[in-house]
Amino acid sequence: MADAGRHPNITLLTGSEVKSVKGYVGNFTAKILKKARFVHEDQCTACGDCAEVCPVVVPDEFNEGLSSRRAIYQPFPQAVPSAYVLDIKNCLGHDPIKCGKCAERCDKKCIDFDMKDEELEVKVGTIVVATGMEVYDPTVLDEYGYTRYANVLTSLELERLINAGGPTQGQVVRLSDRRRPRSVAFIQCVGSRSQKRGNPYCSNICCMNTIKSTLQLKEHYPDIDLKVFYIDIRAFGKGFEDLYRRSRLEGAQYVRGLPGAVREDPATGDLILTVENTATDKLEEHRAEMVVLATGVHPPEEMHIVQEMLALQKCSDGFYLEAHPKLQPVDSATKGIFFAGCAEGPKDIKESVTQASAAAARASRLMSPGRLLVEAITAEVHDEACTMCGICAKVCPYNAISFDKKSGRPAKVNEAACAGCGTCAAECPASAIHMHHFTDDQINAQIDAILEEDPHAVIPVFACNWCSYAGADFAGVSRMQYPANTRLIRTMCSGRVREDFVWRAFQRGAPVVLVSGCHIGDCHYIDANHWTEKRVKRMWRKMEKLGLRPERLQLEWISAAEGVRFRDVMQRMEELRQSVSAQELAETLRILQEEADRTAAKRETAA
Amino acid sequence: MISLNDCDPGFKFEVAAEPGGAGIKACFACAACSARCPVAGHREEYDPRRIIRLTLLGRREEVLSSPLIWLCSACYSCQEVCPQQVRFTEVLTAIKNLAAKAGYAPPSAKQIAGLLAGHGRLLAVTEFENEKRAELGLPAVEERGADYAAILGIAPEAAEAGEEA
Fold first, then answer.
1. Other CB atoms closer than 10 Å to residue A226's CB: what's the count?
2. Which CATH number is correct for A134-298, 3.50.50.60, 3.40.50.620, 3.40.605.10, 3.40.50.720?
3. Among A206, A274, A514, B104, which residue has the least CB neighbours within 10 Å?
4. What does pTM read for this prediction?
5. What is the pLDDT of residues B52-72, one digit of tens each?
6. Min CA distance, A212 vs chain B (Å)?
7. Is B22 on the interface with A (CB under 8 A)?
8. What is the DSSP letter of A146?
């Protein structure tokens, strides 16, 4: 941290908040609110004289409230920059009657009560998101009695107690009587691996943190009695198993079984844990003078602010979603934005450093050439055809289309930010957007060719490049049998499938049509398939109104690994195709012809 | 020793197919249910985790014939602490239903079924209750044994036998 603070090419903005980010890869503009520190950080020498005279005492957040700090303070000893900060919410203020003692005391006169919040505008090429995590609050897990019993602590509280720089100078004491505990029990998976309360995922760090704590406690107090209650110990990393073994050799007892309840012996403040030891198959009662809850981690609540600002995606567990879990683990789906640390998922220090290094390398790799190669598959607006409705700008998952109704200028696609999904082209009511390499003409030509001969015998399928087309491919290479009359039309995203394409297929005599894409949440273009879903639903309503069977148009989500699903879907489609009679097809053609005539007539009268 | 040849691997699917039984396969044996169970605190042999394990192993006869499965007080404490939403109280109801179908229901359960089939409730309404009801202006309760028995699918004779037991 100190190295980063000293580096000539790194500007640290502490106590600052990113308010907005505009632009695209290589050209981001971030508005940053730098909150007033009330201390000139370049002059402060962190001598601490100010804190000595400050009369305000508040709980110290860094020490989990186990000690107190003043209203002017240094958050923690290694804080960068090494300067004090004034907590203006708790400060009595610079009124000579009320206080202002610190400003009087400071020899260097670096305390400035008139300092204002500053708004900075910074131009950057890439962004690394490292929003970190928060620790789970176990108060809701009533059976463990956290906050009800003084001697039930969280792992973070123990961490502060055992730290030489902590509130007790490294002396582990009980909160009830400030006496050293002779026995400590650890409960694992608190707030983790639970489908109901807390988080469904494994928090990744608690097992090793507990093992480390047992070793530390044994080192400090060799006679201490340690018990760890666990479901599974996950010591999967380099050197971890060795640490686990050492902890057992040192005498920590590992009991497989989760305590059902913790109760306090009011006379002594000791805690009694009821647990079924699954190794002995017996219900056991364990006594401990202190209980430590190995709490899990979860994403900070404010993550959605950054998510909205940068058009990021989240996983079901609330952390940010990487562009690809294996091949692009530090990239976001938006070009030029990367993840480091727990923003992407719970991880320990080593993994966080690895990911941060990778993110920095990915970012500099992008920036060092000074120019950017982008995919040629992008959208382009035909200015003369644009009716300036603004729908394209609304549907673009990348905010790559700039449009301002007041300016009176047609929408404009930023080609560096455009990923080429084609959702704008599909939604444009004026057909004013041209997709390079997946043009309307090309797709129409494919539809016409597929349905040129015996259209009643084929199944046209619109498949997205990343999931459904790959799923069909997987079914093929796995030698799965699916109906041979399947005719695939590839689009980059299911969001590209215009209504017109489907109508055209039905007009050319297609008995059924399948639109398929990635599962909701797995879309390779952030959330473009939401628009596919909306569009297909809109078409179903239209079909019903026209008197066509809506089920003849099907929407299915098929991932690249779901060859079996593709086969099953195609077999269902074939059954559906056989249910469409020649009479129904003739009727469809008549209805669609009438509808086309009506639209043409309407257009004529309008003109 | 448990011989796997004597186990019925289909048993867990049978339990899971019963209403309320679906969660059983999610159990990861953390034993929080057993540690929390007030019945287990009094009867050492009663162990929710063990019942789940035996079921997952496929010890059909051992589970269904066990008198222990009828000890649950349905306090739902296990369900509260279970991190994997196994819903043990409901799973046990599913197991008890299978046990009853296999003819392992204990006499007390049969007796209760008999009372239900005979009176439509767990007690007989006598002249005494009907007099009290008349005083309060309530209509007299009629016994319609045949109807109750038909709803419950229990023959009236069996119902009477249950009542005697």
1. 23
2. 3.50.50.60
3. B104
4. 0.81
5. 999 999 999 999 999 999 999
6. 22
7. no
8. B
